[in-house]
Specification:
Elements lengths: L1 H23 L7 E11 L14 E2 L2 E11 L4 E15 L6 E15 L6 E16 L3 E5 L2 E5 L3 E14 L4 E12 L10 E13 L1
Antiparallel strand pairs: 1-3, 1-11, 2-4, 3-4, 4-5, 5-6, 6-9, 7-8, 9-10, 10-11
Length: 205
């Protein structure tokens, strides 16, 4: 009899634990998250006019970074991101020029509670972007010699993604994000419409 009671108690405890596992492995109020990610940045034109007959373009290249998030509720959170793209400027007569692009963002995140380990979300925010060119872009515009250097400015972003909580602490994150850059060069600048696709891992605590 005692063995039967013990077995029933253990079975009930196990069932409760299984039911609780998905809830624990989700976004929770007051929880914090740290993420590392990597992916692809898809570029756009850098200038609003041609330089020596060609329009300089931010190349498609690798992007990576870290993020910190704080969840006020199981739906609403805020996130700070630091990103880096070691890319280049192409479409130049003299060949490609290395360009490092650094972004810092503050974003609002809205999570959708699915009752499972998959948590879709949307994200949007504002930030700061700074470019670092190895050398100025040199050429001619309307027959006049020009030298175009790097610059900094604001950035806006919005995206969609999903978090998969493999455990109540460890998660994998997939995301696609649109990014608007006010401009990354100091002359003949053009706003950029870029896209980022990333895969990351994170820890909740």
């Amino acid at each position: 009899m005692l063995r039967s009671v013990s077995f029933i108690g253990l079975a009930a405890f196990g069932a409760l634990a299984l039911n609780a596992a998905p809830a624990a492995a989700q976004v929770q109020p007051g929880s914090q998250e740290v993420h590392a990610y990597g992916g692809e940045l898809f570029g756009d034109d850098l200038t609003d006019t041609k330089v020596s007959g060609r329009t300089p373009k931010l190349d498609d290249d690798v992007t990576y970074g870290i993020r910190y998030g704080y969840n006020f509720t199981n739906a609403w959170g805020v996130e700070l991101s630091l990103g880096q793209s070691a890319t280049s400027v192409k479409q130049l007569v003299s060949g490609n020029l290395d360009l490092d692009l650094t972004t810092v963002d503050v974003d609002a995140v809205w999570h959708f509670d699915t009752g499972s380990r998959w948590v879709p979300y949307v994200v949007a925010g504002i930030g700061y972007a700074a470019a670092d060119l190895d050398d100025p872009i040199r050429g001619t515009v309307n027959g006049r010699a020009v030298s175009i250097d790097d610059d900094k400015g604001f950035t806006l972003n919005a995206g969609v993604g999903a978090k998969y909580f493999a455990t109540d602490r460890f998660l994998v994150r997939l995301e696609a994000r649109y990014r608007y850059l006010d401009g990354v060069v100091d002359n003949f600048e053009d706003s950029l419409n870029t896209f980022e696709t990333t895969l990351g891992v994170g820890w909740k605590f």
